[in-house]
Amino acid sequence: MDNRETKGSGQAVALAFLGGAVAGVVAGLLLAPKSGEESRQALKGYARKAEEEFLEKAKEARAALDETIERGKHFIGEKTADAEAAVKAGRETMKEKMDQCCS
């Protein structure tokens, strides 16, 4: 599948989600049995709660990302050491073969 098609589909889904959310908020405000002041206070409360939840999820995501980065660094370090050892062993073997051949 073409990456542009996938990206476009993701954007379409995100836009549809946001459009649905906005429509839901508007419908909720229009059909709400509360007064304007009560509705505004409730919305402020919901917004604060959503912000707190978002920030908490962002912190969790950052911690997971940091952990993944550290694991990646450790993995790269191990593989680098393995590659260096293999190169060293190859050089030593080549030197031994050259010494046997040319001696």
Task: Give an overview of the whole structure.
The protein is mainly alpha-helical and 103 residues long. The protein has a domain of 71 residues. 93% of the residues lie in helices and 0% in strands. It contains two helices and no strands. The mean pLDDT is 84.
Secondary structure blueprint with pairings:
Blueprint: H1 3-31, H2 36-102
Order of helices and strands: HH
Radius of gyration: 30 Å
Derived from helix and strand composition plus strand pairing, the structural class reads: mainly alpha
* Main beta sheet strand tally, sense and closure: none
Features:
93% helix; mainly alpha; single chain; 103 residues
Q: What does this entry show, briefly?
A:
The chain is mainly α and 103 residues long.
